[in-house]
Design brief:
single chain; 526 residues; alpha/beta; Rossmann fold; 3 domains; 18 helices; ABC_transporter-like_ATP-bd; nucleotide-binding
Length: 526
């Protein structure tokens, strides 16, 4: 299938998400759509898949104009889409999910899944998917669930497959397996649109790259283009790919976590007997696929989990059982993973957000009265120091970009002496320029002797920042390894192997890596 998008524009109440986008995907081609979070990539694909109606422009399939009133029209034309968040019903079997919306019935209107099972087995055998048609989706690993989504599209005779941020929830090995599957699909004539913000993966899988910035196509490139060139296209300026970090000089163990357990709302252990230390002057990076206990671990340290047991000592003082404000006042800086919900008050000004952890302390307050001149002076200083780009410090936080909002949170937390600094997903949804700044500021805090915990689902960010790396899987600690540990070993640990098992397997098998190491952008933009 040859696909052409001509002048596609999509507006939402005056906001232009896609601006006259042109795109051509040739038969059997992997065409990568590269851009930062919020660049308009997913919106464009939702237009193509019939989820949004374009404001202007047209779509051509094999040279003929088409109009998609919904996903059904797109699928009938041979277009399939695997969304970043899978569209599967966990309590249904694979066959039931694949049949959904394309049901075949027998005598008396009884659902007949035999034909669907045969189709799943045929496709699974052809591409080596190893998917059981009768398995419950909720029992399948994330990588296999993604294969089910691909099978759903192929059963419906998709000739062009859209993969929206397909590696966001995969381990490195699952990512390599996906890239191998993409190769098999294109060899059989299927066209692929691969949406990503990760340069490393885009360069590994693509035949052609189109870069989108702020809703516009800003350039095209071949996969052999230098990473710096692609990064510059993404952000509109030159980008320094090297962090230039120096080795850590760890001191005493300041944070000591022992036998930490956190129960989920359903009573299942979200954190299971986790123990570790964090030393002065080092960064412990916590890695793992999203949903393996990282959030609950951080929340337990911050006093946000009431179902936590064990011990969390900071400088010898127990934190478990204390409230959040008390923990913050004890010298813990905290950047939550969702800044808009937990890190900022969007209806407050920059100046007000910068003192949320000190609003009742001198020099920002005297008794119950705020000292406005001190608050204004603090805001002026931090806006300049952290390059927070806004009209004034009286601008509302809601009016700022994600990168500038994150700078506010970081500036606030670093505005006082810290005994411990914790950042969860510190660069999620942040532009590359801001990522560079945030990483350097975190490293500066480490070099000042503060123990630092970074939690990130972006493996490149973990490897870039971590002096040591702790890997969580289903709430359990698979091990703590040096920061220079290979991606293969980390990937196996993220899939459930302990450090010794992962090391032995890599040594024995010399596990091949599809994605080659090369200079990477900070924050997982790799």
């Amino acid at each position: 299938m040859k696909l052409e998008l001509q002048g596609i524009t999509k507006s939402f109440d005056g906001f232009v998400a896609n601006d006259s986008v042109d795109l051509v995907v040739e038969p059997g081609q992997v065409h990568c759509l590269l851009g930062e979070n919020g660049a308009g990539k997913s919106t464009l694909m939702n237009v193509l898949f019939g989820l949004y109606e374009p404001t202007a422009g047209r779509i051509l399939v094999d040279g003929k104009p088409v109009v998609f009133r919904g996903p059904g029209d797109a699928m009938a034309a041979g277009i399939g889409m695997v969304h970043q968040h899978f569209m599967l019903i966990p309590v249904f079997t694979v066959a039931e999910n694949v049949a959904l919306g394309n049901e075949s019935t027998g005598v008396g209107g009884i659902l007949n899944l035999e034909e669907t099972r045969r189709s799943i087995k045929e496709i699974s055998d052809r591409y080596g998917f190893d998917v059981d048609p009768d398995a419950l989706v909720e029992d399948l690993p994330v990588g296999v669930q993604q294969r089910v989504e691909i099978i759903k599209a192929l059963v419906r005779k998709a000739n062009l497959l859209i993969l929206d941020e397909p590696t966001a929830v995969l381990t490195p090995r699952e990512t390599d397996e996906l890239i191998s599957i993409i190769g098999q699909l294109t060899d059989s004539g299927t066209s692929i649109i691969f949406i990503s913000h990760k340069l490393r993966e885009v360069k590994a899988v693509s035949d052609k790259i189109t870069v989108i910035r702020r809703g516009k196509v800003v350039g095209t490139a071949n996969p052999d283009a230098p990473a710096t060139e692609l990064a510059s296209l993404m952000v509109g300026r030159a980008v320094d790919l090297s962090l230039g970090r120096t080795p850590a000089i760890p001191g005493d163990a300041i944070l000591q976590v022992r036998g930490l357990n956190v129960l989920s709302e359903t009573g299942i252990p979200a954190v299971d007997q986790v123990s570790f230390d964090v030393h002065a002057g080092e960064i412990l990076a916590v890695a793992g696929v999203q949903g393996n206990g990282q959030t609950e671990l951080v929340e337990a340290i911050m006093g946000l989990q009431d179902k936590a047991t064990g011990s969390i000592l900071l400088g010898g003082a127990e934190l478990l059982g204390r409230n959040v404000k008390d923990i913050i006042n004890s010298g813990v800086g905290y950047v939550p993973e969702d800044r808009s919900t937990d890190g900022l008050i969007s209806s407050f000004t920059i100046a007000e957000n910068l003192i949320l952890n000190r609003y009742d302390h001198a020099p920002m307050a005297q008794g119950v009265a705020l000292k406005l001149p001190a608050i204004a002076a603090n805001a002026k200083e931090k806006v300049a120091e952290y390059d927070i780009r806004a009209g004034s410090s009286q601008a509302l936080a809601s009016t700022l970009s994600g990168g500038n909002q994150q700078k506010i949170v970081l500036a606030r937390e670093f505005s006082r002496p810290l005994k411990l600094f914790i950042a969860a997903q510190p660069t999620r949804g942040v532009d590359v320029g801001s990522i560079e700044f945030l990483h350097r500021r975190i490293l500066a805090e480490r070099d000042a002797g503060t123990p630092v915990i970074i939690v990130s689902t972006e493996l490149d960010e973990v490897m870039e920042l971590g002096d040591r790396i702790a890997v969580l899987f289903h709430g359990q600690l698979m091990g703590i390894v040096p920061g220079n540990t290979s991606r293969d070993i980390l990937g196996l640990m993220m899939a459930g192997a302990n450090a010794e098992e992962a090391l032995a397997e890599v040594a024995a098998q010399q596990v091949p890596t599809t994605i080659k190491d090369e200079p990477t952008l900070p924050g997982g933009i790799a």
